[in-house]
Amino acid sequence: KLVVKLYISGARFRPQRQDHIEKWKGQDIMKWRETTSKNLAIVSTLVATIAFSAAFNVPGSYGSDGKANLDGDRFYNAFLVLDTIAVTTSVVATILLIYGRASRTNRSWIGFIVSMHFLWVALNSMMLAFFMAIAAVVSDKNPMKIALSQLMYGGLYILMTLLACFATPGSFLGVVRFLVGCCSEPLRRSKRRISRQFPFVVYYAFNVIVFIIVNTIVLVLISVAGRLPR
Fold first, then answer.
1. What per-residue confidence (pLDDT) applies to 192?
2. Where in the cell is it found (predicted)?
3. Nearest of 86, 132, 104 to residue 37 by alpha carbon
4. Residues 6 or more apart whose Cβ sits within 8 Å of residue 224
5. Helix crossing, 107-137 with 200-225: angle to 10°?
């Protein structure tokens, strides 16, 4: 984060021979990844368990023929889709986290990063599925539907804004400029130097962009779902 922030601010490297550049090894972050992977694997397993059990405790219950009473309802169908996404992404995240702990290769870092995105999608899908389940059994005339959607929207908006502020080094456009590149030759040289010396920085900037895009999509879905008629 600090490296990207310095780049966005226009900071420059001191003059140095290219063959004397030492690649950042990041031993501390390797230990952090191992500990974090263990904790995230527990969380992803719990999400998968909850989402899996929700598929057998559907809103509206089952009829005498064994089929769901709300079969065909748009909110019920949305609940099934979101719950399936939550189960799938949480299981994938768990597998990637377990693989990352067993593997010591550089590719395990990619698996760790991808697993965090899958887990975040699973958590948001589970929350959206919870809202769809409520919307499926609540009448459109009931003001609780809109109230609950606004409550969920407000809570997630505050959470995602705080997380984005903590994760984003400066402005969103600045991170995009770092990834895309600039017309200035000194800035391009700085970016090449950063890529050689701090190889994780590019991954970090890319994942900040993905994180913000996913959050925006989730907030839009909650806002739209709260106003949809049955």
1. 73
2. Membrane
3. 104
4. none
5. 10
- What pLDDT digit, counting tens, does each position of 29-42 carry? 677 777 888 888 89
Do 72 and 42 fall within a single domain?
Answer: yes
DSSP helix/strand/coil, 168: coil
205 domain-assigned: yes
Q: Is 22 helix (H, G, I), strand (E, B) or coil?
A: coil
Residue 10 corresponds to which tokens in the numbers above?
Answer: 């226009």
* Total-model pTM: 0.78
Helices (H), 55-143: 74-102, 107-137
pLDDT (tens digit, 9 = 90+) per residue, 76-113?
A: 888 889 999 999 999 999 998 888 777 766 667 778 88
**Phi-psi label, residue 181: left if phi above 0, alpha if psi -120 to 50, beta otherwise:** left
**110 and 160 fall within a common domain:** no
Structural domain contains residue 11: no
Residue 22 covered by a domain: no
- Residue-wise pLDDT tens digits, 144-183: 777 887 888 888 888 888 888 887 777 777 787 777 766 5
- Provide mean pLDDT across the span 123-134: 88
* 133 and 208 share one domain: no
Residue 225 and residue 166 share a domain: yes
Residues in the chain: 230
CA distances from residue 12 to 53, 141, 190 in whole angstroms, order as listed: 54, 60, 7
Domain containing 144: what range? 139-172+179-229
Structure tokens at 82: 């979101």
3 is a domain residue: no
| Total domain count, the chain | 2
